[in-house]
Amino acid sequence: MKGNPLSGKSAFIIGGTGGIGKEIALLLAGSGVRITLHGGSSQERLAKTVNAIRDQGGEADGFLSRIDGADAVDRLFSEYSVRAARSASISRGERLIHAEPYVPDILIYAYGPFKRVVLNETSAADWLFLTQQNLSLPGYAVSRVLPSMMKRKWGRIVLFGGTNTDTVRGFLTTAAYAAAKTGLGVLAKSVAKTAGGAGVTCNVICPGLTDTDYADDAVRAYNRSKSPAGKALSPKMVALTALYVLANRSINGAIIPVDEGAVV
Ligand SMILES: NC(=O)c1ccc[n+]([C@@H]2O[C@H](COP(=O)([O-])OP(=O)(O)OC[C@H]3O[C@@H](n4cnc5c(N)ncnc54)[C@H](OP(=O)(O)O)[C@@H]3O)[C@@H](O)[C@H]2O)c1
Prior knowledge:
Order of helices and strands: EHEHEHEHEHEHHE
Distance between the termini: 40 Å
CATH architecture: 3-Layer(aba) Sandwich
CATH class: Alpha Beta
Mean pLDDT: 95
Structural class: alpha/beta
Number of strands: 7
Bound molecules: NADP nicotinamide-adenine-dinucleotide phosphate
CATH topology: Rossmann fold
Helix content: 40-55%
CATH superfamily: NAD(P)-binding Rossmann-like Domain
Number of helices: 7
Strand order of the largest sheet: 3-2-1-4-5-6-7
């Protein structure tokens, strides 16, 4: 894959076994990227996605780990590093030497749980959960990969905002989720400032209402009702934008709505 800036790179996709993350994994693998998938609890979804990538001639493995507390991201990167070290030493025919932790060239932080609750009924637990999962932990993951990416003078990070969180707005039923997702823009712009000169990019994609494999009939009907075109987005449309962003180092610190102009 000559001329493809992503070919031969490694990617770690947090929440890559289903939904938008899975579509990105399939497209990246098709661009010659070695994929490590992370999923929450479904062994079936993990196996299906790994097999789909291998069937199309790509390289993939993956593991499951629930993201349920402050040390969850450290656990993910430890597991990633052990796997990457193992496959690097196998491909070079070396003994397993574990000097420095392995960090991926490309980090996609896709997992981002959502809860619909009005502001005056949002509990402390809701606030802590939604901001931890959608801002603090993605933020820490970025801080964790940044030193290696900067040293290597190449790195790509894609984060996911919420629908309409591309700028500061008010939300009637998703204030905590949307506040956290809007904050990701500050994170991406801070990466661009800190590490853009060292070849690292970080961008936020804000999908519209997307019919993923997790959407039930009620969600699909709601998605349709809010879509200007009367049909929800496909995860592949969102993933294609991610691929474009990853392949272009001039796009850095951007917050990109992919929502066909939907307003929620
Ligand atoms: N879908 C939409 O309409 C929409 C709209 C706007 C923004 N977004 C944002 O876009 C991103 C992707 O959304 P998505 O709907 O495709 O998927 P998602 O539900 O955020 O993520 C699915 C992935 O996360 C894993 N996962 C689920 N629960 C987990 C847990 N407790 N711990 C660790 N991993 C877990 C899943 O694995 P298992 O299958 O094994 O559970 C799967 O790999 C999110 O950040 C979301 O907030 C989505």
